[in-house]
Amino acid sequence: MNLFRKKSIGSLLAYAEKKETSLKKALGAFDLTMLGVGAIIGTGIFVLTGVVAAQHSGPAIILSFILSGLACVFAALCYAELASAVPVSGSAYTYGYAVFGELIAWILGWDLILEYGLASSVVASGWSGYFQGLLTGFGIHLPTAISNAYNPAQGTYVDVMAIVIVLIITFILTRGVKESTRLNNVMVLLKIAVVLLFIIVGVRYVKPANWTPFMPFGFSGVVSGAATAFLAYIGFDAVSSAAEEVKNPQRNMPIGIITSLLICVTLYVSVSAILTGMVPYTKLDVKNPVAFALQYVHQDWIAGFISLGAIIGITTVLLVMMYGQTRLFFAISRDGLLPKGLSKVNPKTKTPTKSIWLTALMVSIFSGLVPINHLADLTNIGTLFAFIVVSMGVIVLRKTQPDLKRSFKVPFSPVLPLLSILSCGYLIFSLSSLTWLGFAIWFVIGLVLYTSYGYKHSLLSNKNIQ
């Protein structure tokens, strides 16, 4: 069995241009940047900031976001290089196929299904919580049984609003990539305006005394906070899923990936500093820390704007993460490792409709039935694993194909890719043993699927593509 058979980069690019399986090229650098910001600024800034400050880092949450942000910046540079060299749908899965071979590609693809699918489910659950909070403000309360995921002890069985938002996003995605990104761009600009409003208003209420003690849980708290905060940055890699739908991807992909991440790191650090300066960190363990901080200083009307901005922000995260999942199913199916129907493209909208609906089914089941706390850590471990392999891929491809055209190159290679591997490795080993067990079970299920279906149906197995 040739488990490590590779697809040449030339064949990847040629096959992506085939009419029956090609996607519409409609996106520019601005669209990609907005996709990245849309994916990153959401649950992290409106929810995780309070949790990380109260439970892990205290005011040193600033350092937690800088640490996890640095790990992501290193990984983003690696993604940018591979995206400029191999502008094909599939993100890390496709890069793995070209660099390491089919088995590693499948493992990465299966891993990304875990990342995008569970991240989408986490975000849909978060959206449901914020939206129900908004309804409560108008005196509307959903029946307890349909207000949250399955938890008989609390009388909840299904999160109906999480399923509703997933179906709405699904409808938007089926309309076409340009239509989806146009809506995303508008929502992203609105939520950036809301975050800037918080910064402008909040900085007037900062009390430096609230930053003391700065590191109440020690440096180990900063590191564990960084591992949790890492979830906030997940999403920039979804930008690389759009490579096949980008005009001039060699130029625009690196711009979109790097610019979006730098914007988001700046906003996260700024919001964290102001948040812990406005409110003692011990009081921030709430579901809506940004709105809570404004209520704390009696700026209730602005807090209302923030809550609305949070709903818009979380919506864009869900849109981009589900988009990334659909393109992943599309890419894996096109290679024969999943049923071929998933790579069929609607001739009118140029979207992989069956992949979109499969994603909707998967995310609806997880977000509607599985409690959110069981989903978040598995999302982190899947992403960190993908970042490590992509960073390794840059080093390997520099050695094996030094003459490959790259419009963007990671500076100081192999030092920065190695820093990406080490920083992501440090964070991944700080996750719990239970998370590792769940990841191992998912890994084994993936191997069973590959050996029973993927290996036999692969295009490389049938020698249809060299």
UniProtKB/TrEMBL annotation:
It is found in: Membrane. GO terms for cellular component: membrane. The chain crosses the membrane at residues 32-54, 60-80, 92-113, 156-174, 186-205, 217-236, 257-281, 301-324, 356-375, 381-398, 410-429, 435-455. It is a multi-pass membrane protein. The keyword Ribosomal protein does not apply. Keywords: Membrane, Transmembrane, Transmembrane helix, Transport. Its main location: membrane. InterPro entries: AA/rel_permease1. One of its GO terms (molecular function) is amino acid transmembrane transporter activity. This is Amino acid permease-associated protein. It comes from Neobacillus massiliamazoniensis. The lineage of its organism: Bacteria, Bacillati, Bacillota, Bacilli, Bacillales.
